[in-house]
Amino acid sequence: MIRIAPAGRVLAVVAATSLALTACGGGGDTAKPASSSAAPSSAAPAAKGDGTLTVGTLLPQTGSLAFLGPPEFAGVDAAIKEINEAGGVLGKPVTKYDTDSGDTTTNIASQSVDKLLAQKADAIIGAASSSVSESVIDKITSAGVVQFSPANTSDKFTTIKDNGLYFRTAPPDKLQGRVLGDLIVADGSDTVGILAMQDSYGTGLADQVAKTVTDGGAEVVERVDYDPKAADFSADVAKIKAKNPKAIVLIGFEETAKVIQELIKQGLPASKHKWYMVDGNLSNTNYVKMPKGTLKGVKGTTPGAAAPDDFKGKLTAVNPKLEDFSYAPESYDAMNLIALAAEAAKSDAGVDIGAKLAEVSKGGEKCNNFKSCVDLLKAGKDIDYDGVSGQVEFNDAGDPAVATIGIYQYGDDNKYPTKALEYRTGNIAG
To answer: Using CA atoms, how far apart are residues 355 and 344, in angstroms rounded to an integer?
Structure first.
């Protein structure tokens, strides 16, 4: 075991093997009391199922997180393929409709949700972006439909009003923020600068990193929350340069490439200052055209346990062109859990699925794929689904109670390998 910070948090260090997983979500606190995703409230309509589990995907085909779309779609498709080969759900094949979530610069997500509700979706998998999910969660859950994100990490969803129908396989940012902050301190940086995109994801994750760094005895000498749509980041970077920190934390999405160009222009390269990145900008496509070695040695964190190589084979079987595997395990597990909850409820209605999701994720006989799990359910046994992304085990808020964060490092080719430096597993509560 490894002690992570003076607060006494303990995270297990797991041997690094295999698949790299990128994340994206949000942050921000709310004064509302914690909602429970374990049982839908009376506010959600008691929609009746029609006997066929219908799932919609609300995942990025366009926008700032479009690079996450292919692996997420592949994860869902790989799960459905196995589910239908095992006889489907409630004796019928799963029906699926794919839609685009876009990003917050458009109204694509809302339009997609309207289409999926019109197609009588019982559950919607997505969105990838926390801000996008936040914009449609009320429309989805008020309709009595489960919303299940494989990639939202905003702390806000822990307490958001969701009628007990919002779940996620990605952990809240508080865990990633602790791991990243502890990593920075352990690497010997006692002065830190933070450049974070100004939205619920960036500010929330930056808050947690700053707290952890400070608790660890280091100082955040400058923090800049910037407009990700800005055409120029020179003034933002200049504020960091003025304080000359040993470490620079970059929290954002695809605009990080422009921020990096400005860092180099102003004399703050990764070779002189330690750069750290997060799930939203940890990419193997965004920086490959930069000069060789630009990101060499840069470290980044992202949610997700090590995944076996055979899982990558399942993904490429449904999408031979797949090159990135970020959030595919979380998407695969989301689909399996929805299907198993429907089987446990003996109903495809969203409110019934929502009432059973926590139950199939913990406390019963261990199983790790749809076929073995559904056989146990049909034998009258309680199950505990452990997925490719980790243990899952939903708490009362619909969050995974325990999760894993991978730590990756870029090479001379401006890419990070699929093999992580290490994986740290910890309780979300701290």
So the answer is: 10
pLDDT of 39 > 80? The answer is: no
Residue 91 has a CB neighbour count (10 Å cut-off) of 9
pLDDT value at residue 45: 55
Q: What is the DSSP string of 322-375?
A: ----TTHHHHHHHHHHHHHHHHHHT---HHHHHHHHHHHHSSSEEE-SHHHHHH
Look at residues 44, 52, 74, 14 and name the one whose alpha carbon lies nearest to residue 306: 14
Q: How far is CA 175 from CA 20, 126, 328, in A?
A: 18, 21, 20
**Per-residue pLDDT tens for 67-105?**
899 999 999 999 999 999 999 999 999 999 999 999 989
Per-residue burial over 328-355, b = 16 or more CB atoms within 10 Å of its CB, e = otherwise: bbbbbbbbbbbbbbbbbbebbbbbbbbb
- Contact between 137 and 159 under an 8 Å Cβ cutoff? The reply is no
Q: Select the more confidently predicted residue: 35 or 201.
A: 201
Q: pTM for this structure?
A: 0.82
Q: Based on the number of CB atoms within 10 Å of its own CB, is 393 exposed (0-12), middle (13-18) or buried (19 or more)?
A: middle
